[in-house]
Every structure is written in C-alpha cells, then in structure tokens.
Amino acid sequence: MISSMGKPYVVGIDIGGTNTVFGIVDARGTILCSGSVKTKAYDKVEDYVTAVCENLLPLIESEGGVEKIKGIGIGAPNGNYYSGTIEFAPNLPWKGVIHLAELFQEKLGIPTALTNDANAAAVGEMTYGAARGMKDFIMITLGTGVGSGIVVNGQVVYGHDGFAGELGHVIVRENGRMCGCGRKGCLETYCSATGVARTAREFLIARSDESLLRHIPAEEIASKDVYEAAVQGDKLAQEIFEFTGELLGEALANFVAFSSPEAIVLFGGLAKSGDYIMNPVKKGLDSNVLNIYKGKTKLLVSELKDSDAAVLGASALGWELKDLKE
Amino acid sequence: MISSMGKPYVVGIDIGGTNTVFGIVDARGTILCSGSVKTKAYDKVEDYVTAVCENLLPLIESEGGVEKIKGIGIGAPNGNYYSGTIEFAPNLPWKGVIHLAELFQEKLGIPTALTNDANAAAVGEMTYGAARGMKDFIMITLGTGVGSGIVVNGQVVYGHDGFAGELGHVIVRENGRMCGCGRKGCLETYCSATGVARTAREFLIARSDESLLRHIPAEEIASKDVYEAAVQGDKLAQEIFEFTGELLGEALANFVAFSSPEAIVLFGGLAKSGDYIMNPVKKGLDSNVLNIYKGKTKLLVSELKDSDAAVLGASALGWELKDLKE
C-alpha cells in the first residue's frame, strides 16, 4: 500500500505543550531513532524550528540523509491540515496563526504536512495499527480530554475549514457538566480521564458505601486510582467505569448513524482498562444503536504503543505527501 | 463541472411507496419530460421494472434515444449505493434484497446507480441546487420522517455498509419520545412533520391558553395546520415552531462537530415555513455550537422545487456514472 519511491522513511513530529518528540519511521511503523526538545523553552517559533532541526538533522543523516525521507508529518494541538498552521493553541508559547509546516518545509527541503493530534492518531492507526486496510472508521482518543479522527472513504474528514472531528465536544447531556469550552454536557466532561475522576468525586459524595477511593483525598483522585481500585474488586470503582463506558457507548451509537464506520478504535489510558471499560462501552453501543447498524461496527483498542503512538501517527501523514518538485 | 461526453441527459427515477416518478434531465437541472407509474400495482419487481421501462423508453426516444443518456439514478427507500439494491424496505411491495439497479441496467443498457432518497437529495442539491460548488455539506430532509445525506470531500458518505447518514435517528433526548425504530428520543420524533403535530398535541394538553389549534380535533392536527395558525399570529403555534427549531438547531450543532460542513441545507415542508422555523434553528445552532465553528456554517433552504426535487436528486447520480464499456 505504501509506495516509497526510493524514499523509505518518514519523519513524525509530535508537539505537546511541554515536550516535542520526533523520530524517523519506516514503512512498517518502526521508529528507527528519535529525539526531543522542550516546547516551552522557545518563545519565538523560529528559534523552536531551528532547535528541532538541529536535533533532527543528525538523526536524518544517520539514516542516509534528506533524500531518504518521503515527507514530514506533524501532530499539533489546533493544527489545521489545509493551511499547515497551528491556530490559537492555548497551551503553546506561540500566539495567533503559526505557519509551522511551511517553516519546516523551507528549512529542510522536505514536504511537510500538519494536523491535530487525534487526526494524526487516526492516520497512524490506518497506516500501522488496528485500522489497517479500513476505509471507514472513527478514532476516539481518551486522554485528559476526548479527541477524535474520522476517516471516510480512506480520507480523514477535515471539513470545509480543517477543524472537523471534535466529537469530544458533542453534547451528550442537556444541562450536563460544565466543560472547559464554555458549554455544558460535552462528552469530554464524562469520558476523559478527568471526567472519570469527576464521576468518582460525584459518586463518593452521593453514596455512602465503602470504597478504597475514600482513602484518597477527593481532589487528588485520578482515573488511574479508579482503575486500580476496580482491579482490586472495589464495587464503586467498577460502577464508575460502567457509568463512563455506557455513556461513551451511547455517544458512539449516534456517531455510527453519521458515518456507519467499519470500526471504532479507542486510544489512550482509559481504553487500556480492559473489560472494565470495554464491556460497558459495548453495552451502551449495542443498546442504543439503530437496528440497521446493530452488530456491524467493530469496537477495537488501538494497536499502537502509547509511547510511540504520537510520533507514529504524525509520521503517517508523511507517506501521503508528494515530492516538492512534482 | 458536468462533462457530458456527447451524452447530454440523465434519467432520474424516484421510488415512493405509492408512486414512482421518472424524468429526463439536462445538465442545468431542467426536467425535459417526465412520467409515473403506481409502485403498489406491481407485486413482482420484474413486472414493475417492465412497466417503468415501457413508460420511460418513449420519453428517452423523444429526446434522441438511449445513446443520449449518460446514466440512470434511482432514489429509493432503504437503497444501498454499493450494491445497487433495495434492502428490506417496509413500504415497498417487494420483500428482502432487490437488485434494482442491475435490473434496470440490463433492461435498458444504460449504467444505473441507486441510493436512498436523502442521499439522492444531497447529490441533487450539489449538482443543481443550493450546494453547487460545495465539497462539505449536510442535507437534512424534513418530511414525515427526518432523513440526511452527508457530503465530505465532494463525496456522499455511504459508510462501510452503504447505510451511513441516518441523522433522523440520532438520539437527542434521553428517554424521549418513542420512535418508530423502537428506540426513544430520536431527532425524527421531534423535528419531522409528524413530530410537529405531536408537539402540538402535547402543548395543547399541557397548557390552557387559547389557540386556533384547539378548533381542530387533536388527532387530526398536521404540521401544516400549525404553520397556518402561526402565520395568523397564534402564539402557541409559533412556540411549537420555536421548540422544534431550537431542538433541531441543537442537534445540528453536534453534527457540525462531526464534519464541519460549509453549509447545512434543509429540505421539505417544514423548511419552507420561513422565519418561523429558521430563526429558532439558527438560535439553537448558534447557542450550542462549539466556539471554533461559530458563525462558519451557512444555514440554507433547498433551492430545488418540491415537486421536482426527488427526480432531480435521483438523476444527479447519473452524471457520476461511467459508460458500461469503459
């Protein structure tokens, strides 16, 4: 499927609020070598690009030089695929609209594309992971927030403005929990890691039954604590997962009515909580999905290693790029 | 945009439970001539196809013969684009899976495609109507039920099985109104013509203020009566539209988070109720849509004449077909 045209590698750059990680990746999704810089250390984006390139170029040289690289893919918060820009990203040091893909492309002479983290994850899953060979699927990333990447006819859905696929901000409960986006009842307020912690605090106040979670100060409870308690047989913790999973499944049932995907791929810490989360998700999906879709959509967990996924996802964009002189 | 390759016309066939209407259409969306047969009169699908062809062929001959026709498009309930089949349509006389596109193609020697009514409407709007030149939009058909056709990157979203785009069955109210699909709270139970009538009956029972609608027996109230009362200044009728429109707008806000369309095109009787419905839809959309999408998505009313839209929509599929010998 991947035609390397004598250029066997791509570069993936994952930009986070704290760190930027990059690596050289081959067609099988092996990260041959990687490096990182501190995103926050550079107030000016030009200095940042220079720093990344200074660290990246020796890696590229070690794998045979620039002529071996088919393209560079960048995953970044608020990334716009059409323009290759980062637009008003609240957690990055550079304000306004940043033409980041262009800056890298000019500096290195390698075609460069950019998109947001969740879209990059979807392309990564389609290229190297659980969605290989699929043309229609939805990627849901369950982290601090909830992100999504939607693939239709083998292409990421970017929408008319480049910002499609914000399924974490679909409103799932009328007048529900307050969301960081300023609205109420977004999926993200329930089914992210922070949403799970929020549910834990609510359950602990509303109920009086014993729980291992009562030994942790309420404000410090994290999604991980709930998982560990659930594994130890804690009933309340298990019910937190049931609540979270069923609500997610219910939302997924509505997403299925949109694009009827072959699979929904879940990614992130929560998705690794095994049956505790996946059984209720399946239950929520099956009991809410329209009859004609019943039993047709596979529920999968990402096959990419957590630590590699961001760089792999970004890198996968690189395979789709044309040579600059074409 | 439309390349006719010496074949200047297409045929559109719209299959309804009662009537089948067909016509010859040119590249500007003019219906040159048309005809119809009674769908219900034919227990065997082969007899039905024969009857349609016997009525259609003279029309084709009058416009220069089969060699002038680029393709045939069919809009049908439960139509599957991939297989060209109608599958288990409850309101048609033929049971199971019917290979209808194939039957027409063999009979007439003209390439034939088939999809459901709402997808056909979307292609029609993109080819001849309000969505000309758009690559990303959502068509919502407000009739007895609520249907949808979603276009992404210039292509209808069919999903992995051909059945994507059932936005009328997105659940908008937890434990809401009972739907014909067996589930509760579907958009269709509120925002279809029957949904409006249902809201009218609910409002009339729950409230005691005077209304023109009280002069009509409750079971006989139709969406049209509500519109007429609203036009005459009836407060209760106007509030029924506000309720319906705001709920639709709220649902549209979630759809925008999926595919970030350039426009949402509303079609059907309800969409023709002007400001009574469009103002509340806009209000519901604006007050529920995520910040990054705010003010970006146009809210449009279909530009196709009601009486022509079904045939035009179906016909538009015909332009995308390749010659059988290619």
From TrEMBL, chains A, B:
Return the similarity comment. Belongs to the ROK (NagC/XylR) family.
Record's Gene3D superfamilies?
Answer: 3.30.420.40
User: Cross-referenced PROSITE patterns, in alphabetical order?
Assistant: ROK
Report what the protein is called. Glucokinase
Q: Name one Pfam family in it.
A: ROK
PANTHER family named in the record: BIFUNCTIONAL UDP-N-ACETYLGLUCOSAMINE 2-EPIMERASE_N-ACETYLMANNOSAMINE KINASE, ROK (REPRESSOR, ORF, KINASE) FAMILY
Q: What domain of life does the native source organism fall in?
A: Bacteria
